Amino acid sequence: MIVVSGASRGIGYEVARRLHERGQSVVGLSRGGRSDADFPVDKLDIRDDVAVSRYARRLRQHGIRVDALINAAGIASMNLALMTPIGVTSDLLQTNFLGTVSACKHFSPLLIRAGGGVIINFSTIAVSLHLEGESSYVASKAAVEAYSRVLARELAKHQVRVNCIAPGPIETALLRGVSANQVSRIVDRQLLKHQFKCSDVADLVEILLDNRAASLTGHVFHLGGV
């Protein structure tokens, strides 16, 4: 089974939907759930470490094999560094970084028990571009990248591969409130000067899950290039 967090919308939903369409066994995780998806979406807040631990334990108790974890849950906020409320920074770190850490910590033993697997975490191209106006968001995702690289080293002996995907601007709810001019300026700083879609991210996820990517771990893949 493949576990996908943030599966009620945006990138997480498209990734889970694509994998389900390809015949994979998929379960989505979301704070609010989603009843109209073709795949099951369980209500789980990845910010709640105790709840995540209990959920993973139930999977183990029921003998459910987990082959991959895709951490697509995340939030964003655009504020100048000196204008960012500390509460906003806290929320970004709690969801983007600590939520990812919690999921990796509690699901990794299931991957190890299965004899190996794949973890895909999500960063953003804003980390490498050091985008002004996104300091706290960038910090939360930079932490994800650093954590993923270390985790890749720790889990390599268990045949668990850990990689990050760092998209540029993608048409999702996270992009609401960002002007077309701002999006255009970010895209212009990419090597490939066009905006990508959720389906492009799903393409890369499929590649990283495939056995032909068995040599890839500890990497950050930038859609659009930096």
Task: Walk me through the structure.
With 226 residues, the protein is of the alpha/beta class. It has a single domain (2-222), classed as Rossmann fold (3-Layer(aba) Sandwich), CATH 3.40.50.720. The chain has helices at residues 10-21, 49-61, 86-113, 125-129, 135-155, 180-188, 198-209, and strands spanning 2-5, 26-30, 41-43, 68-71, 117-122, 160-166, 220-222. β1 (2-5), α1 (10-21) and β2 form a beta-alpha-beta unit. The longest helix has 28 residues, at 86-113. The radius of gyration is 17 Å and the shape is globular. The mean pLDDT is 94.
Characterize the quaternary organization of these chains.
Answer: single chain
Mean pLDDT: 94
CATH topology: Rossmann fold
How many helix segments? 7
Query: Total number of β-strand segments?
Result: 7
User: What is the helix/strand order?
Assistant: EHEEHEHEHHEHHE
From the spread of the alpha carbons, the general shape counts as: globular
Portion of residues in helices? 40-55%
Q: Report strand order across the widest sheet.
A: 3-2-1-4-5-6-7
Unreliable parts: none
Structural class: alpha/beta
- Which range does the strand content fall in? 5-15%
